[in-house]
């Protein structure tokens, strides 16, 4: 009987989600960067960049025990990508770094606690594996869903995500 670890499960899920996310990001048109479906919504390019930058945040969950948003020396995302090629290159770089950090971890490390806070105020504290799944993968999937709506509103055909898309079916 084969026993699966936290690390193996997260890596398998990550691989699937990264491939799906990249397919969607490949379709984001830089010339529509300022599109926003509602005044309270992020602009298209801001949303796509946020999805990419979340990969670095997930890596932090693996490699650190906490992150204080008030720490001026804390990790911050790089400058906003200025082209589709730059966006995808950052996605590939951050994906590879996150994957390597997970491969270098083990279940003991992933059961350790991670605390996200703003000074003394705790925003979230949970085991690293749960933080990766909830604030990492699920958070990215949520924003990827938003991104798919933006693309639909721009009449850009959507790729398959969890099965064929209406565009791929010719509907």
From TrEMBL:
The record's Gene3D superfamilies line, in alphabetical order, gives: dinb family like domain
Ranges where the DinB-like domain occurs: 14-147
List the InterPro entries hit by this protein, alphabetically.
DinB-like, DinB/YfiT-like
Return any one Pfam family short name: DinB_2
- Recorded superkingdom: Bacteria
**Protein name as catalogued:** Damage-inducible protein DinB
- What is the organism field in this record? Hymenobacter rigui
């Amino acid at each position: 009987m084969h026993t699966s670890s936290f690390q193996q499960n997260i890596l398998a899920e990550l691989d699937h989600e990264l491939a799906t996310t990249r397919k969607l990001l490949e379709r984001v048109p830089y010339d529509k960067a300022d599109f926003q479906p509602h005044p309270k919504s992020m602009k298209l390019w801001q949303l796509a960049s946020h999805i990419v930058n979340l990969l670095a945040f997930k890596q932090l969950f693996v490699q650190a025990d906490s992150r204080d948003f008030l720490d001026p020396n804390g990790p911050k995302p790089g400058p906003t990508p200025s082209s589709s090629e730059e966006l995808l290159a950052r996605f590939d770089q951050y994906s590879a770094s996150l994957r390597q950090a997970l491969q270098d971890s083990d279940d003991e490390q992933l059961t350790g606690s991670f605390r996200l806070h703003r000074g003394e105020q705790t925003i979230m504290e949970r085991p690293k594996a749960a933080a990766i799944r909830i604030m990492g993968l699920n958070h990215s999937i949520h924003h990827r869903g938003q991104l798919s709506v933006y693309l639909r509103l721009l009449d850009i055909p959507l790729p398959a995500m969890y099965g064929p898309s209406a565009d791929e079916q010719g509907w």
